[in-house]
Prior knowledge:
Blueprint: H1 4-14, H2 27-41, H3 49-58, H4 70-80, H5 82-87, H6 90-102, H7 114-124, H8 128-142, H9 148-163, H10 177-190, H11 192-207
Helix pairs in contact: 2-3, 2-7, 3-6, 3-7, 4-6, 6-7, 8-9, 8-11, 9-11
Amino acid sequence: MIRSEITEYIEREIIPRYAFFDKAHQEDHVRTVIRQSLMLVARMPGADAEMAYVIAAFHDLGLVKGRLNHHHDSRVILEADEFINAHFAPEQIALMGEAVEDHRASNNQRPRSIYGLIVAEADRQIDPETIIRRTIQYGLSHYPELDFEGHFRRTMSHLEDKYGPDGYLRIWIPGSDNERRLKELHKLMADRSAIAAIIRRIFDEETR
């Protein structure tokens, strides 16, 4: 059970901050991570839904200082939040801060707690349409000078580097939906014409 004052604070003060990030990390993204986190909590006896909810809500707030160290900066923001400090014990805040820091996909070390596993898994969102759209949205925001060919190459490079068979993405919960979806994505990536058509369509939708 999540206390009403927690949800009211998150809705009023935290989620609105995502409106200032790039299109790939706005309100729809944080709400998806929250929803997926709470679904995972239901499958993990002993996990606290309220803590998982707060972790998911704060996990990308560090983007306000840039992407490179956003996982560290998100932890700092959570641990310094006066409302959170007034509603959770110090040991809970430490766990939540670690989890936020451990969520990043490029982290090659296993998250330090069940909460890190939950938010990392929830943040993966392995869906070809979503991944490609977020990649193109990020590219359009940060590299507006690129033409379609430039965005196509950048998108394919990102897919291989992160999601490919030798990519840096790690699935921390064996047998999860993400593990199955990653295998399906590998098959799609191997079909060059099929994935090129998806990239072209989404690029056109985002630039029309």
